[in-house]
TrEMBL record, chain A:
Keywords: Membrane, Transmembrane, Transmembrane helix. It comes from Haloferax marisrubri. It comes from the Archaea. The chain crosses the membrane at residues 12-35, 118-140, 152-170, 190-209, 221-239, 259-278. This is Cobalamin cluster protein. Residues 44-105, 283-302 are annotated as: Disordered.
UniProtKB/TrEMBL annotation, chain B:
It holds the Pfam family CbtB. This is Cobalamin cluster protein. The lineage of its organism: Archaea, Methanobacteriati, Methanobacteriota, Stenosarchaea group, Halobacteria. Keywords: Membrane, Transmembrane, Transmembrane helix. The chain crosses the membrane at residues 21-40. It comes from Haloferax marisrubri. It comes from the Archaea.
Amino acid sequence: MFAEYLTRGVKAGLVAGLVFGLFMAVVANPLVAYADELNHAAVEESGHSHEAESAHSHDSEGTHSHDSEETHSHDSEETHSHDSEETHSHDSGDSHAGEGGGHHDSAVSMAVTKAVSVAAGGLWGVVLGGAFFGVAFFFLEPAIPAPDAAKSYLMGLAGFVTVSGAPWLVLPPVAPGAEQSLSAATRLPLYAGMMLAGALACLSAGYAYTRLRESSGPVPAVIGAAVPFALLAVLAVFAPENAVHGALSPTLETGLTGLFAFGQVLLWLVLAAAHARFRPSSESESESAIPTAGRDSAPMAD
Amino acid sequence: MATANTVNGRIERARTELSPTQMAAGALFIAALGFTLLFVQDPLVHDSLHNFRHAAGIACH
């Protein structure tokens, strides 16, 4: 039985991974590359006073990769950043502009980054599907307060809140190239801590809902379930603030943040819909209870 | 199969279905995976995931 649940979770993960990998390839990859390019154009234009900010990337790479980068990064990177950088790149050194044009402080080429990112997008779906819809769903299914297929959607909601929603209350997705006031060493534990808080909020909301529904009816149950999420929001208010500022226009940054958030929402929605659809037929006596949302996203499975 | 359909029942069920070796192997595998994801900060891996990390909303610059 455990193996069946795990298989079903991973299958849903494959479907979602396919969709998210596609999203990576056709939406996120070109946009991140473009945003990086804009950032570097802005930084280069503002003169070399930026050296202090991005010294960690440019100084280290500018020196040792001069001869090797100059030759082959020329055709791929230089073409699209040509107009903005041509003016001063030739006197200050080609490797500086050639690298900076496409990609920010990177150890690998943009092509590798793109390919690996698409693969990671696919695996991201599989990992989340296996962990949440395989393992966690096996244990929690009896406690999820919903009719059969709707359990998958509640699991998807809880998964989103845990992995992305709760941490994003403190550290929302940032546009490429933006500077953040908190260091990575502070942000990683903060992100992990908010994930834990999100998971606890979801579990206690489910518990409160089930208990209150038995004792006092549906309305107090819904209110009781909302309390943990309110506490989560309060917690986020008291978390250290991460000021973000980048060279991109605020509108574009908002749009990118929204797009990345939308990508994760889409991922969880596809996961839940696929998982609901892969329900073994023996369990689905109440077939009519399957929400139509499950049907809507079914073609994505193909 | 006398286990009730509760969370405790599911835990009981997993305990009877999986051998201790399977459980140990699974736990070890997950620990290894988690360890890798957390500590592979090698620039090569980290940087090639740059676009993905932005799309997933987990950005560290």
